[in-house]
Specification:
Blueprint (H helix, E strand, L loop, with lengths): L1 E9 L3 H9 L4 H4 L3 E9 L3 E8 L7 E10 L4 E8 L2 E14 L2 E12 L2 H30 L1
Antiparallel strand pairs: 1-7, 2-3, 3-4, 4-5, 5-6, 6-7
Length: about 140
């Protein structure tokens, strides 16, 4: 299983950044490979949704996930339900450093069902992770500046 932990300081309010990451319905507008998002159910603590991912040279893939979140602790945890992976877990933690500065801790673990897909994903993972984090930063700047 491939895993990564990333910490970044971002010059925006922690609660507002949390809200941007939790706004999964907007992902198709700013995450390049997310072509659609379908929310099946949502309440004050969890979301069940499917993300359709479309990479250039591959057929679109659907990733079903269970998203749990805590608005007081400012954390988001995603657990994989179904799709082309064997497993996927993500965690976002937002720690306020001051009114307009936040330490974000993002971790991910994933494993594809097929060895070939796993090796491709591991090869390109640093690029994908950087692009995803950058997409959230740009979104935050657009909305919050």
């Amino acid at each position: 299983m491939k895993s990564s932990i990333r910490e970044e300081v971002i010059n925006h309010n922690a609660k507002e950044l949390f809200d941007i990451v939790l706004d999964i319905e907007s992902y198709p507008y700013f995450i390049p490979w997310c072509s659609a998002m379908k929310v099946h159910s949502k309440n004050e603590k969890e979301i069940y949704a499917d993300m359709v991912v479309w990479y250039k040279y591959f057929m679109p893939q659907r990733f079903g996930s269970h998203v749990e979140f805590d608005k007081k602790k400012l954390n988001i945890k995603t657990t994989y339900i179904e799709g082309p992976l064997k497993d996927l877990k993500t965690r976002w933690n937002f720690k306020s450093l001051n009114d307009n500065q936040t330490l974000i801790n993002f971790s991910v673990e994933f494993e594809f069902k097929r060895f070939f897909h796993q090796k491709i994903a591991e090869t390109f993972f640093p690029l994908i992770e950087n692009k995803m984090i950058e997409s959230f930063k740009i979104r935050a700047d657009e909305i919050l500046n």
